[in-house]
Amino acid sequence: MRKILLATAVVASAFAIAAPAIAAPAPFTLSSTAFKNNGNIPDKYSCAQDHKPGNDISPPLAWDAGDLKAQSFALVFIDTANGGKHWAAWDIPATAKALPEGLKKGYDVPDFPGTHQKAMGKADVAEQFFGPCPRNKHKYEFTLYALKVAKLPGLNKNSKVADVEAAAKKASLGTAKLVGFSTAAP
């Protein structure tokens, strides 16, 4: 019996050695040089920087799509404490790997052909990053969607951040998140 168990173990280990190694898929990641995941979002990117909500400075964001074959990207920024949908950018070209600090104002994002943005608020406040302004500690999430389409269908200047989020979820190949906390007040 002992010889049979030993022989079985030898055969099993031979198969384990002969099996080719399968590489793990490269991860889809989102990061910022302004704050670490689960860190504090600096006041510079919130209502505290100019003492009023909206029209805030967007943080620098960078990503690696890993093995995903994205045709474009969409980015949504929400306050998880109250479900507030602060800002979205979409139709970001598949060749893009980052968004710089301080995206300029406009539904059509200047310097990023084809990319659109929308924020909570009205008028020109709705066309630029709308940062944290919770007054007490809230958790915020940037969610980056790798998309199977080059352009998200059904969206326009009248769309809301929630519309962008719903469309991105439908066309998603995968997501990456960056979490931050803020206590900013105007």
From TrEMBL:
UniProt-listed InterPro entries: PEBP, PEBP-like_sf, YbhB_YbcL/LppC-like
Keywords, sorted A to Z: Signal
Signal peptide range in chain numbering: 1-23
PANTHER family associated with the record: PEBP (PHOSPHATIDYLETHANOLAMINE-BINDING PROTEIN) FAMILY PROTEIN, UNCHARACTERIZED PROTEIN YBCL-RELATED
Name under which the protein is recorded: YbhB/YbcL family Raf kinase inhibitor-like protein
Keyword set includes Membrane: no
Similarity section: Belongs to the UPF0098 family.
Pfam families: PBP (PF01161)
